[in-house]
Predict the 3D structure of the following.
Amino acid sequence: MSEDRRTNGDQRPDADRRTNGDEVEALEAQEARLILPRFTYEDAWTLGTLLVAMAREREAAVAIDIRRGPQQLFHCALPGSSADNDAWIDRKRRVVERYGSSSFLVGARFRAKGTTFEASSRLDPDRYAAHGGSFPVAVEGVGVIGSVTVSGLPQAEDHALVVEALERLLDSHTAASV
């Protein structure tokens, strides 16, 4: 049984709908826009605490994970989350590590081809999940260096929460350099 139907939702029934090319293009543009000038330990802390504050404000029972390469720089499990969320984080993060794109975008690309990640990726679904919520941490001139992942909401909402936090972090970097 999928996590969404049984607990608190990284997959929604609408996850199986066919994705069109416009959605894929929009998600690709989002990733192209959210490239950071740097990503330090302090930035990981800032991003993580920002995600915690946003989740608390929305009363979202989520777990949050931020990594640079294999090193976990931040992790928080809010009330109402469970060990299942940590398992979803690992599965979604592996998709980002393998494809260099957000877990939501990877799933959308498969759906745009008229299939699913689970049916066509040839990857173990117990280890990989192309459901929204994990986003690459990319640095200008370097590329993808890590990931930020949220689990506990429906997949589009997990993805949106991460994107909003990355936008705020990018804005703070831009404001600091002016």
